[in-house]
């Protein structure tokens, strides 16, 4: 074990766990907060789905830190985050973020966290596991920004692994393992120099009619496909602000009749 690894082992780690269960009438059945993970549920206008805002009070995550989110909902629910999640330099261990979502009955889940910012030296392993009953649906997005533009940061040493598994009626309908490092972000087959990207997935019965409107929004910034009751899109941007110029109109379209969380437009 190197000196850096010894230091990393001895450092205090941030661990946060959230558990939330929503009944069919929208009431909270179970809510648990642990460690650095907190949850706030604002009062919304009539007709809007309940909204839960996830807060990481540690201010960011580094190597060895862990964040776990577990949500079950039998009614519509929108989940977002208070701010962009910052992933700092790791001395050895990976940062782990694990999210499990369960949609029951005819619930529609909106998983709309703000972007994750990777600092140079970050090591992030992130997973999203979704279990939907046969009549449930979802809209999910995860966006990543590589480095801090204001600092002129260029990532020369980082690793990123994003793992998605979505099941509907017990059947696996979407699986994706995305890996990036300083070499893999180069070239036309990957990010081609872009510093921000997002993955967007919709599970519903009528997704095909979104294809042309989304292609107009994305233009040459990304691509979108729809088949078998699901829609998948990849979007890139020069930076986080540039990515949002495409992402916010797309999410506004897909989230309707719900509005985007206000935190997205601040």
Describe this entry's structure for a reader.
The structure is a single chain. With 266 residues, the chain is mostly beta strands. 12% of the residues lie in helices and 45% in strands. It has 3 helices and 17 strands. The chain has helices at residues 3-10, 211-218, 240-255; strands spanning 15-22, 28-35, 37-40, 51-56, 66-73, 77-81, 85-87, 95-103, 108-112, 116-118, 123-132, 137-146, 159-168, 171-180, 196-203, 222-227, 230-237. The strands form 2 sheets. Strands 3, 4, 6, 7, 9, 10, 12, 15, 16 and 17 form a 10-stranded mixed sheet that branches. It has a 7-stranded mixed sheet with strand order 2-1-5-8-11-13-14, with no helix packed on it.
Structural key phrases:
single chain, 266 residues, 10-stranded mixed beta sheet, 3 helices, 17 strands, globular, disordered N terminus
Short précis:
By secondary structure, this protein is mainly β.
Tell me, rounded to a whole number, the average pLDDT.
89
Largest sheet: 10 strands, mixed
User: Structural class per helix/strand content?
Assistant: mainly beta
* Poorly predicted residue ranges: 1-8
| Helix-residue proportion | 10-25%
SSE layout:
Blueprint: H1 3-10, E1 15-22, E2 28-35, E3 37-40, E4 51-56, E5 66-73, E6 77-81, E7 85-87, E8 95-103, E9 108-112, E10 116-118, E11 123-132, E12 137-146, E13 159-168, E14 171-180, E15 196-203, H2 211-218, E16 222-227, E17 230-237, H3 240-255
Helix pairs in contact: 2-3
């Amino acid at each position: 074990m190197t000196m850096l690894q010894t230091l990393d082992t001895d450092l205090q780690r941030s661990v946060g766990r959230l558990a939330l269960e929503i009944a069919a009438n929208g009431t909270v059945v179970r809510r648990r907060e642990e460690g650095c993970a907190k949850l706030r549920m604002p009062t919304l206008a009539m007709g809007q789905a309940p909204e839960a805002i996830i807060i990481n009070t540690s201010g960011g995550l580094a190597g060895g830190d862990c964040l776990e989110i577990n949500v079950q909902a039998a009614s519509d629910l929108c989940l977002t985050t208070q701010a962009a999640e910052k992933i700092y330099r790791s001395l050895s261990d990976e940062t782990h973020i694990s999210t499990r979502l369960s949609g029951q009955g005819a619930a529609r889940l909106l998983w709309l966290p703000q972007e994750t910012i990777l600092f140079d030296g970050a090591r992030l392993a992130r997973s999203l596991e979704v279990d939907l009953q046969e009549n449930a649906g979802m809209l999910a997005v995860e966006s990543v920004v590589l480095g801090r533009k204001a600092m002129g940061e260029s990532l020369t040493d980082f690793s990123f692994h994003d793992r998605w598994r979505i099941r509907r009626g017990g059947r696996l309908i979407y699986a994706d393992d995305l890996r990036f490092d300083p070499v893999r972000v180069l070239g036309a087959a990957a990010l081609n120099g872009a510093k921000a990207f997002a993955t967007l997935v919709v599970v519903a019965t009528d997704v095909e009619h979104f294809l042309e409107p989304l292609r107009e929004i994305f233009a040459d910034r990304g691509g979108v496909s729809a088949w078998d009751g699901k829609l998948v899109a990849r979007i890139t941007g020069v930076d986080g602000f540039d990515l949002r110029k495409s992402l916010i109109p797309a999410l506004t379209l897909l989230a309707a009749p719900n509005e985007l969380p206000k935190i997205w437009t601040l």
